[in-house]
Amino acid sequence: MAELDNSTAPSDRAMQRAAKRWRDWLKAQDIGAAVFQQQAWRAYADGHSGLISAPTGRGKTLAALGGPLMQAMAEAETPEGRASHGPRMLWVTPLRALASDTRERITGPVAAVLPHWQVAMRTGDATSRDKRLTDTGKAQLVVITPESLALLLSHERSREQFSQLRCIVVDEWHELLPSKRGVLLQLNLARIQALAPQAQVWGLSATIGNLQEASDVLLSAWQVQSPALIQDMRPKPFHLHSITPPLGTRMPWAGHLGLANLGEVAKLVFSAPSTIVFTNTRAQAELWHTALASIWPEDAETLAIHHGSLDQGVRQSVEQRLRAGTLRCVVATSSLDLGVDFPAVERVIQIGGARSVARMVQRAGRAKHRPGAAVHVEAVATQAMDLAEFAAVRELAEAQVYERREPLRLCFDVLSQHAMSAALAGGFRPPELLAEVRRTAAFRDLSDAQWQAVLAFLEHGSDSLVQYPQYERLHCADGLCQPANTGVVRMHRMSIGTITAHGAVNVQYLRGARLGSVEEAFIARLSPGDVFNFAGRSLVLVRLENQTAWVRRSAEVGLLTPAWAGSLMPMSSSLGERMQQLLSTAAASPAADDAPHARELQWLQPLLQLQSQRSLVPGADQLLIEQVGNTQASQGAKAAPLFVYPFAGRVAHEGLAVLIATRLAHLQANTFAWACNEIGLMIQPTLPIDANAVDWAEIFKLDGLDTDLRSAVNFSELARKRFKEIAQIAGLVQSKVPGKKSRASDRQLQVSASLLFDVLSKYDPEHLLLRQARQEALDQELHLPTMQRLLASIAMRQIALRFPARHTPFSFGLWAESFRGQLSNETWQDKVRRMATQQERQAAGEPGPRTGAPRTRPSRSGAPSRGAAPPRPRAKGTLPQGTRTAARRTPQLQDRS
């Protein structure tokens, strides 16, 4: 703190006294100020804005809180400083659970040094007292989410409400940065900058690869020339211990639930006072909670579940008990992995791969969440490839190599919503709002024509919708734009935010509390009397009415568990590349017992040896392509499948499978099915394809990528799917109607959006939202940017063709995935187990490699390959006129928590 005192002007007695009071409070709490915290306080005192980056548990909260509190203490010595109206500080958080936790953490220091301050929470979980404190301007510090901030800014009182604001802290900024919620927050910050230009902005982030860009985006509205970038450079030990079966024990090469490891997980749980078990999906969390409950020897109240679809009351009860240390175990998703402080938690268990270095480190930081404590996580392998991921994550985390978070640009649905909010807040003049919007990174490149298109959309929807008054929401006259009528005001405020409805149905006891929500499609498959698992309970469906599933407790364990639609967790390219390098190195020379990754790689040795015998473990500069079995299909048999291993993650492989199938169909008319996992993809043709006759450089070329992806699938339907969410955010369709308690059903929303999509496609094909829907379909459904980077990487690799007679360990996992969604009276697990046993028997008696005729071909980059045979002439098959690739996607469990 001496450094802080030295930076204060000697005549500024008030700041010196405030610094002493802050220092005394820290000393009373036995807290020693870290260097990065002192740097942050000094930078704030000097009037800077910036970004604070530090590992989990290092004290970022105090780093961001100290400067504003010292400033407020100094100002409170004057009558003007104590009599301010409205919040002096906003703390923006991405999660409701994190908001509640943050309020608990900051209330203590605030009450100690500023007893006249009121701390309120303004989220979907806020109490009526908190809302009253915020709305009346009696709360000096408000913990808030981006959606609630947008709602406050939609009121005319916001001009006065935020005029005295001094500081805005954005917690976990890296989570908001790559989403539309981050775009909405950028626009809100630009509006606050116009209302309170004296306010300083500080972001907090623990793990991000593009820290400078993140800072620039956050502070774009303030146009800060040299933002303060403060990092805690002290290394924090990261320990990842992988849980594997004994050597020689069979372990699946595919799968994701990992319930076979239930016994090991139970041992870990009961060896610690309090544990969080993290899963990647809500459905997986429900299944793991049910499995643990079936063998739980203690009071059932000591086991709980936490995810985003549970009711506020259920989640808050779990969080309170976790803080109090009365819970032995909580099974959770990402709803608890961001900055939530539970000192009682001593152990974190991750089920399966987290698919991201940053996510694994974040989750590991929930245990022993105290400054100076090492980060430790127990990682449970659910299938063999998880072991390679664990080894790669450990190495990258120790080197602090984290994933980039790419910000979104030009989201016109969010801009349309923001413009309507500005209209509600007393109206706006288009040139002034345009200048304000262009200060954000998201809309820095907004053209005049695009801005006029946004205004035209809000005024009448479209030229084809001008006859329908419900689409007239904005009225502009004499240079001022205001809501068209009072109905528009009510409707807009009910739909503010970018988290769109997915046909949720409330689940509620007949005579009791609400438990949460499940998807409408899941409930629609049930009949009264069916038993299902939800919220850690076995429930029997009594009836379904008014978008509410009325239930009661059941004594029997349900056989059905809901799954939620959402986005797959993409595996980062750096993680995939390191996995491939580790596997290649391990196959060439087994790891020594004292090597950093000996445990994982030694366990994988038998599988890697078999992979080498039958095919190849590809190096970092190789792309392995396998064609398993005979290339010519006999009568009634399937053609030999193709397996490609880019090690780029399931999301990237989905798009690559579409592209490969499309371009193979250009050679000959065919029908394809495919399956994907984290290391590769399988293409199953109906008619035989000779991999030797394919010009693979042509298949993986970057030219024509956009066109081929559009032609590969029913692109119009993908755009239609994106249009539904865009239309909700932009206010074109409504999920809530004033005066009605229930939301519109998912089917109603889909029908409304589809009708509008068809009308606009026919009469206004260049409509602003249609163009956005098409672009999002390319970027988010077909993953165009990811595909561009992947093809550029493949162009630098050598194509290695192998023709194993039987499945390899790599191909077996993809083969297993391909059976999902097929009709059979044999379970997927039994079918895979039977095939695995057969493979093991064959491997045990296999004298040597049977790889057919291995061929290595140069990549498009022209890099020579050792021993490469001269290429065979390319097949001159052409795609008949009108023939399309009939591609069938294998269903995958998807979830967004």
From TrEMBL:
InterPro entries in the record: ATP-dep_Helicase, DEAD/DEAH_box_helicase_dom, DEXH_lig_assoc, Helicase_ATP-bd, Helicase_C-like, Lhr-like, Lhr-like_DEAD/DEAH_assoc, Lhr_WH_dom
One Gene Ontology MF term: ligase activity
Biased composition, class Low complexity, residue ranges: 844-869
Region listing for Disordered, in residue ranges: 833-897
Domain Helicase ATP-binding: 41-210
Ranges where the Helicase C-terminal domain occurs: 264-416
Name the record gives this protein: Ligase-associated DNA damage response DEXH box helicase
